[in-house]
């Protein structure tokens, strides 16, 4: 796969004849040219699908709900203006993200889990011809059960199906595979076994195809990582490497550089809105600043850009930080050592860059040191400290246990979402992906409640 800066049209050698995306095993990288803008755009679109799947799984959606979710996500994000390029987009986006997520054990584990889930639900939606083709490509030995053999075993097959609460088998779409290929079905007694063969119905084929897919992808990710570290990263340091390294932590929503829907907040209101609408990560920083009159650089950046995003103007920001820091370091030292960085964050110094607030992903992946207070409390707090902080916010004991469970299982954004829902008595189906989104959604709910009581 060669990445091009030119506007040259990519080859359509990978595309199905009718322009519909077909299921593939992604066994080898495509031999075609890809425009640089498509390299990143396709990867972002697939990433939206995988993160949607991750959120659905974390929320405990049922299989039928997940089936609909995967279908909707795929239709929403993996379309292409040219129908003939749909399959190319699928394959290119997979290999780009394979490059992105091969670079650490944690990244590989997440990507492997999400791609396996995506493959599982897409596999269920294709017909038996595709099933057989994929089984052949994977080298899975199977035999199609003949009509005569089916009739001879009908009673036994029906008995197993009824006991496992499965649909009764039909002569069309019944396969024989070695029982060693389907340990999950054997362990749950969902297949009839005779002479070392398991009789697998069409709707059960996914149980032994997906493990093969996962095994292949797991090995491929390790090999990709070796190529990345030994060759690709250095060769592409000025072109692809910055894109690849940014995609794993990229935030794909609004940048919240200035929340136009909420407007501005004033210094006289800041303590009240901090109590009612700041997420836990920002409440912790805000309260620490009020108590200690100081924050280290990481905390100043995380809280400062958040406050900028919720509508605190530069003059008010300077007054706010000065009022706190001057109690610890004095007004003169504040003006000399700290005021510049605040103006810099607002794009008034240096390169005049308009910096945007940190997303949840960026905050979660930060690494606070001793004496730091930035980061994500759901990840970086001890369980005891997290319980205390949530209780102080007003999270009920029942909701608190659900939040702790999600944090314990490393679903940090979902833990924050459950906190939001508990405090606002309102669902947040989109999930919390950004501290400023938390603030914005909170303010909307509180304003609606105030209007209804007037």
Question: In short, what is this structure?
Answer:
The chain is mostly helical and 454 residues long. It contains 21 helices and 6 strands. Helix content is 60%, strand content 5%.
Highlighted features:
21 helices, mainly alpha, 4-stranded antiparallel beta sheet, elongated
What is this structure's SSE topology?
Layout: E1 2-4, E2 33-35, H1 36-58, H2 63-77, H3 86-100, H4 105-125, H5 128-137, E3 143-144, H6 147-163, E4 174-178, H7 183-187, E5 192-194, E6 197-201, H8 206-235, H9 240-247, H10 270-277, H11 280-292, H12 297-310, H13 314-329, H14 331-337, H15 339-345, H16 360-364, H17 377-380, H18 383-393, H19 397-408, H20 412-424, H21 435-453
Parallel strand pairs: 1-2
Antiparallel strand pairs: 3-4, 4-6, 5-6
Helix pairs in contact: 1-2, 1-3, 1-4, 1-9, 4-8, 13-14, 18-19, 19-20
Q: What does the model show?
A:
This protein is mainly alpha-helical and 454 residues long. It is 60% helix and 5% strand. The chain has helices at 36-58, 63-77, 86-100, 105-125, 128-137, 147-163, 183-187, 206-235, 240-247, 270-277, 280-292, 297-310, 314-329, 331-337, 339-345, 360-364, 377-380, 383-393, 397-408, 412-424, 435-453; strands at 2-4, 33-35, 143-144, 174-178, 192-194, 197-201. The strands form two sheets. Strands 3-4-6-5 form a four-stranded antiparallel beta sheet, covered by helices on one side. The protein has a two-stranded parallel ribbon with strand order 1-2. Helix 4 (105-125) crosses helix 8 and helix 13 (314-329) packs across helix 14. The longest helix is centred in the middle third of the chain and has 30 residues, at 206-235. The N and C termini lie far apart (62 Å). Residues 5-20 have low confidence and may be disordered.
